Amino acid sequence: MDSKRRTWLIATGCAGCVAAGGAAVPFVDSLAPSAKARAEGGPVDVDISSLRPSEKMTVLWRGQPVWILHRTPAMLESLNETQPLVADPDSKRTAFPTPAWAQTQWRSIKKEYLVVVGICTHLGCSPVDRFTPGPQPSLPSDWDGGFLCPCHGSMFDLAGRVFKNMPAPDNLVVPPYMYVTDAKVRIGEHEKA
């Protein structure tokens, strides 16, 4: 065979392989789940290293907002005050089951971090932050801080526990989660679940 012809055949074959590989990449990528699908189904890892005390961040998991609140010592102390005022202080109700490890006053693995689904258990509204204690519009004068659902007035303390005689029938939902490291939370998976 002519050496020029062999060179052109090799070059054409290599170009064809590169083109086939380039065409295959988008096809193979299309088989992977989208970021939205991953957020709606599988676990989500969240870096909380920059979350300072009294700050809250929101992440999306299974199409729902999940709040992570870094509670201060004063916020944790307020849970002693709200304990007798909430409808289900130990999260024992079964309509929205709470994992056994979160059936405590803090409703969390590490008491300084609250992790809850930010959807009211009444009609699915999203409560707003009312972390500042004291009298405020639509809140009692002895308010210790927490969350207020503006649609129908349900109030939750800083552990996501609903106060007595509110439209919301249950506490905010605690999703399964675990700490991968001290600075990373995995929402949607618990090592003992």
Automatic annotation (TrEMBL):
Binds 1 [2Fe-2S] cluster per subunit. Pfam families: Rieske (PF00355), UCR_Fe-S_N (PF10399). It comes from the Bacteria. It is a single-pass membrane protein. GO terms for molecular function: oxidoreductase activity. Coiled coil: none annotated. Component of the ubiquinol-cytochrome c reductase complex (complex III or cytochrome b-c1 complex), which is a respiratory chain that generates an electrochemical potential coupled to ATP synthesis. The main subunits of complex b-c1 are: cytochrome b, cytochrome c1 and the Rieske protein. This is Ubiquinol-cytochrome c reductase iron-sulfur subunit. It comes from Thiomonas arsenitoxydans (strain DSM 22701 / CIP 110005 / 3As).
